[in-house]
């Protein structure tokens, strides 16, 4: 798998932190160079989504808002993007 950049977008709310934890859990079993960034600046968030939390993989929005994806769903999104 090539280097991958994952961004979790959110101002710091409980759902945003939960999505960050879910993403961290999802990448634990995956190989390859995966960087996770937690974006909290509202101006940066608005470049991608209007509803948080948002999930961006390699600069492509793959999820926004609720319901939050579970670990298996996040793994599937990562593998699809990879």
What does this structure look like?
By secondary structure, the chain is of the alpha+beta class. The protein has a single domain, classed as Glutaredoxin (3-Layer(aba) Sandwich). It is built from 3 helices and 4 strands; from the N terminus they run E-H-E-H-E-E-H. A 4-stranded mixed sheet has the order 2-1-3-4. The protein is globular, with a radius of gyration of 12 Å.
Task: Present the secondary structure layout.
Elements: E1 4-9, H1 14-28, E2 34-39, H2 42-46, E3 54-57, E4 60-64, H3 71-81
Parallel strand pairs: 1-2
Antiparallel strand pairs: 1-3, 3-4
Helix pairs in contact: 1-3
Radius of gyration over C-alpha positions, nearest whole angstrom? 12 Å
Number of helices: 3
* Termini gap: 6 Å
Highest-level CATH class: Alpha Beta
Strand content: 25-35%
Query: Total number of β-strand segments?
Result: 4
Helix fraction, binned, reads 25-40%
* H/E element sequence: EHEHEEH
The named CATH superfamily = Glutaredoxin
* CATH architecture descriptor text: 3-Layer(aba) Sandwich
Low-confidence stretches: none
Keywords:
alpha+beta; 4 strands; 3 helices; 82 residues; four-stranded mixed β-sheet; Glutaredoxin
């Amino acid at each position: 798998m090539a280097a991958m950049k994952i961004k979790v977008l959110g101002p710091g709310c409980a759902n945003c932190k939960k999505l960050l934890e879910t993403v961290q859990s999802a990448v634990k079993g995956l190989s390859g160079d995966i960087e996770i960034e937690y974006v909290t600046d509202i101006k940066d968030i608005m470049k991608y989504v209007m509803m948080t939390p948002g999930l961006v993989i390699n600069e492509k929005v793959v999820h926004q808002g609720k319901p939050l994806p579970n670990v298996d769903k996040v793994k599937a999104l990562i593998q699809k993007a990879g």
